[in-house]
């Protein structure tokens, strides 16, 4: 089990067992991490994931609380998870992105001007060293929108913009559940921008392809049913030494 998944499960067990009830405030981060035997970082990621699912509510400057757990509050999050695992619309959106976006990025490499490059650099710099998942996703959408606009093909830009909607929540969910997803996304954006800055169309296309493939690979794994437990091989009973003396001494 991944560290974040383990942290999520432990908080869930506290709620199911009644140790945490609707409206309760969670203990201080350091205290709860020590109580559950978790690192503060993994606990923080678990809280972020559970807040996306409307199970926890983070109140800035006040603390983190268990939500009302009312059915109508939880159903929106449940619907999202079901969409992620069962509805192939999200996967189709990423598959279309995998076709169109590398082409748009390659075209942008040949047409982007210095002003647009400066704006892209400033956009990435605004993220800072440790952006939240929500900040990253908003920045990610704008980054790709500007690259599509730099391709010089308005229809291509419109097509990509029209399919970004179904992918937003999947991007957020990846950010809060996949380790290093935020840092990896930032690094890939930097690599795409480096290729754009040198007007290297093929390298820009390659990095855009890798960037989307990483998200698609995660999405496919997230939608897969859990693997069955491996079957244990049948026990082999060792032969007893000397159990067949006559055979040992038998002549051909």
Automatic annotation (TrEMBL):
Q: Which UniProt keywords apply?
A: DNA-binding, Transcription, Transcription regulation
CDD domains, per this entry? Answer: WHTH_GntR (cd07377)
Cite the record's Pro residues compositional bias ranges.
Answer: 225-236
Q: Which InterPro entries match?
A: GntR_C, TF_FadR/GntR_C, Tscrpt_reg_HTH_GntR, WH-like_DNA-bd_sf, WH_DNA-bd_sf
Q: Record's Pfam families? A: FCD, GntR
Q: Sorted alphabetically, which SMART domains does this protein's record hold?
A: FCD, HTH_GNTR
Domain HTH gntR-type, which positions? Answer: 1-69
The family database entries (Gene3D superfamilies) matched by this protein are listed as:
GntR ligand-binding domain-like, Winged helix-like DNA-binding domain superfamily/Winged helix DNA-binding domain
An annotated Gene Ontology molecular function: DNA binding
Stretches for region Disordered: 222-252
Q: What is this protein called?
A: DNA-binding transcriptional regulator, FadR family
Organism for this UniProt entry: Micromonospora mirobrigensis
Q: What is the lineage of its organism?
A: Bacteria, Bacillati, Actinomycetota, Actinomycetes, Micromonosporales
């Amino acid at each position: 089990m991944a560290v974040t998944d383990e942290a999520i499960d432990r908080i869930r067990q506290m709620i199911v067992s009644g140790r945490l009830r609707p409206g309760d405030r969670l203990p201080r981060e350091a205290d709860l991490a020590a109580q559950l035997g978790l690192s503060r970082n993994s606990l923080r990621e678990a809280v972020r994931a559970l807040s996306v699912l409307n199970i926890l509510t983070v109140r800035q400057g006040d603390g983190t609380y268990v939500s009302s757990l009312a059915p109508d509050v939880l159903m929106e999050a449940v619907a999202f998870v079901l969409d992620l695992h069962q509805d192939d619309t999200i996967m189709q959106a990423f598959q279309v992105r995998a076709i169109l976006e590398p082409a748009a990025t390659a075209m942008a490499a040949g047409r982007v001007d210095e002003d647009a490059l400066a704006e892209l650099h400033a956009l990435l710099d605004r993220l800072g060293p440790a952006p939240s998942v929500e900040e990253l996703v908003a920045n990610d959408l704008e980054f790709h929108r500007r690259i599509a606009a730099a391709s010089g093909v308005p229809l291509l830009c419109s097509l990509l913009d029209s399919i970004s909607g179904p992918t937003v929540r999947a991007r957020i969910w990846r950010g809060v559940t996949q380790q290093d997803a935020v840092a990896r996304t930032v690094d890939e954006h930097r690599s795409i921008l480096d290729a754009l800055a040198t007007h290297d169309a093929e390298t820009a296309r390659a990095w855009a392809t890798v960037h989307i493939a990483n998200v698609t690979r995660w999405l496919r794994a997230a939608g897969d049913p859990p693997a069955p437990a491996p079957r244990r091989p049948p026990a082999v009973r060792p032969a007893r030494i000397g159990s067949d003396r006559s055979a040992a001494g038998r002549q051909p």
